[in-house]
Design brief:
The complex is a heterodimer of chains A (210) and B (285).
Chain A (H helix, E strand, L loop, with lengths): L1 E5 L4 H12 L4 E5 L11 H6 L7 E4 L2 E4 L1 H12 L10 H15 L3 H12 L5 H24 L12 H11 L12 H10 L11 H6 L1
Parallel strand pairs in A: 1-2
Antiparallel strand pairs in A: 1-3, 3-4
Helix pairs in contact in A: 1-3, 1-7, 3-7, 4-7, 5-6, 6-8
Chain B lengths: L5 H4 L3 E5 L9 E5 L2 E7 L5 E6 L5 E5 L1 E4 L2 E4 L20 E10 L3 H9 L4 H4 L16 E5 L4 E11 L10 E11 L2 E7 L7 E12 L2 E10 L6 H21 L19 H12 L8
Antiparallel strand pairs in B: 1-7, 2-3, 3-4, 4-5, 6-7, 8-14, 9-10, 10-11, 11-12, 12-13, 13-14
The chains are: A alpha+beta (210), B alpha+beta (285).
Bound molecules: glutathione and fe (ii) ion (FE2).
Chain lengths: 210, 285
């Protein structure tokens, strides 16, 4: 069975949990003492991921790190509809582009959250500024897509790109990043939560209800 | 900051877990607006002192180690740290869950902890679920002999009451507020009908509107690893954090007209009255 080395408050692990649940894949959770134990920095976990980060997925002999790579793997292997990681070359390119955005620029919002919630020594102003810069780009993109009649980041159906971007955008307020100025993002988040198989993580729905 | 009232000053506060304070990991933190440093000496002794604004070592502080935590005070407590006999019971596991940093006052934290009516809406499908949103008529009483506030006979339907729960159960709750800024919850243990599990929260007030919440579980559980229990509880606290940080004012209102308490429940009203009578001004309005 697929094993997910997981931490409940990690938005990156949440990306993988979302995909597993949406595709209805059975899996086993190995809870890692990320905080306060910093187990992801200990030899046993470093052997699985020398970067000392979560998530890590193990399927048989295959060990994968990085949420985005794991999404690619899971969608390629288990999505019979081929919609989450489409075959078409141009479509796949766009999916990869916005998936990378989720693992890249958007992660400034993750850093801000780690600073505020778990006291990580980051430059909070800089991280928030970078996150806002990424949100502006995302908000513009979603609005453009909507004008074209497309509800999702890389087309007319949700893909792994939406999954890669959802967690840290929806949790941004944990890191003091307000989304008041991003109406298109808010509409997209709302649509995302209606995807069959959607699951919550602590913080996501509470922010929403506020 | 205005002068700190003596009730607040004369309490014991947790500043770190015993396990996390090692000779190589001192904790530089704040308590009631003052900078302090906790250090575990090479001989195993836990020590703490104030740090001046210039960063110089100031007055040494009294330190106790109790319930797997390191405690200190800036005042002169009347007595010992509150008693928690369950800590010494055979078969119980003490699970220290870490620290959650929350931008709010300690009073808001305790009040939210006491308030069961938020379960279905905040901890949906875990500690509560719609449409079972009814909180039954529980009793709140002040135990004058020990000066503790208790809420008893709180019953609630919970889909996943504890990490070890596999199905929904009707859960019995009791709350104990052992001092203005320390609260313990006793709830039906899913594994043992005759016993109760404990969840405790010990906010360390950094200043009037910032706290590091130390929290723990003291449970009978042969099924879950510490890690499963910790992540369950961290998840719950993270949901509360959102609610707490959105409350305005961040201080706990104790004055008439300071806040329209639309749906403040009995426990919350008694808590506010109780700490007001004790003269708690810190983190309140
Ligand atoms: N590129 C990785 C980054 C994941 C990541 O940042 N994980 C966090 C937890 S949410 C982590 O393990 N941080 C520890 C560290 O970077 O030292 C991914 O997308 O999976
Ligand atoms: Fe709560």
């Amino acid at each position: 069975m697929i094993k997910l080395y997981d931490y409940i408050l990690s938005g990156s692990c949440y990306k993988v949990r979302l995909m597993l649940n949406i595709l209805n894949i059975e899996y086993e959770v190995v809870p890692v003492d990320f905080y306060p134990g910093l187990e992801h920095k200990k030899p046993e976990m470093l052997a699985l991921n020398p970067l000392g980060q979560l998530p890590v997925m193990v399927d048989g002999d295959l060990v994968l790190r990085d949420a985005q790579s794991i999404l690619v793997y899971l969608a390629s292997k288990f999505d019979d509809s081929n919609s989450w990681f489409p075959d078409d070359a141009a479509a796949r390119g766009q999916v990869a582009m916005w998936t990378a955005f989720g693992g890249g620029e958007i992660m400034a919002a993750s850093a801000a959250r780690l600073h505020d919630v778990l006291n990580y020594p980051f430059d909070i102003d800089q991280q928030r500024k970078s996150a806002h810069a990424a949100f502006v780009i995302l908000d513009d993109h979603i609005a453009e897509q909507e004008i074209m009649g497309l509800d999702w980041l890389a087309g007319g159906a949700p893909t792994i790109a939406d999954i890669a971007c959802f967690p840290y955008v929806s949790l941004s307020e944990d890191g003091g990043i307000s989304r008041e100025e991003y109406p298109a993002i808010e509409r997209w988040l709302r649509r995302f939560m209606d995807i069959p198989g959607f699951i919550d993580m602590p913080g996501v729905l509470q922010h929403w209800r506020n | 900051m205005t002068q700190i009232d003596s009730t607040t000053l004369n309490q014991w506060y947790v500043i770190q877990s015993s396990a996390a304070l090692t000779p190589s990991q001192p904790r530089k933190t704040r308590l009631l607006g003052r900078d302090i440093l906790a250090v575990r000496q090479e001989d195993g002794q836990a020590t703490a002192w104030e740090v001046s604004t210039k960063g110089e070592q100031g007055q040494a502080l009294p330190v106790r180690e109790c319930y797997d935590y390191v405690w200190t005070t800036l005042g002169e407590p009347d007595g010992d740290i509150f008693s928690m006999p369950e800590f010494y019971e055979d078969g119980r596991r003490m699970v220290v869950c870490g620290i959650a940093t929350v931008q709010t006052s300690p009073g808001r934290i305790i009040e939210n902890f006491l308030d069961m009516s938020h379960f279905p809406f905040v901890h949906t499908d875990v500690l509560g679920a719609e449409p079972d949103t009814e909180v039954n008529n529980y009793k709140v009483n002040l135990r004058k002999d020990v000066n503790e506030l208790w809420a008893t006979e709180c019953g609630f339907y919970q889909p996943k009451a504890m990490a070890s729960a596999t199905e929904g159960i009707e859960v019995d709750y009791q709350y104990r507020v052992a001092n203005p800024f320390a609260a313990i919850l006793y709830k039906t243990c899913p594994d043992r009908a005759d016993a109760m599990d404990l969840v405790g929260i010990l906010p360390q007030p950094l200043d009037e509107t910032n706290c590091d919440i130390h929290y723990f579980m003291l449970v009978f559980d042969d099924v879950n690893s510490d890690q499963e229990l910790i992540q369950f509880q961290q998840g719950i606290l993270m949901q509360d954090r959102v609610i707490l940080e959105n409350q305005r004012p961040r201080e706990l209102p104790l004055q008439r007209g300071a806040e329209i308490t639309i749906r403040a429940d009995a426990a919350s009203i008694q808590y506010r009255r109780w700490i007001k009578e004790m003269g708690v001004g810190f983190g309140t309005l």
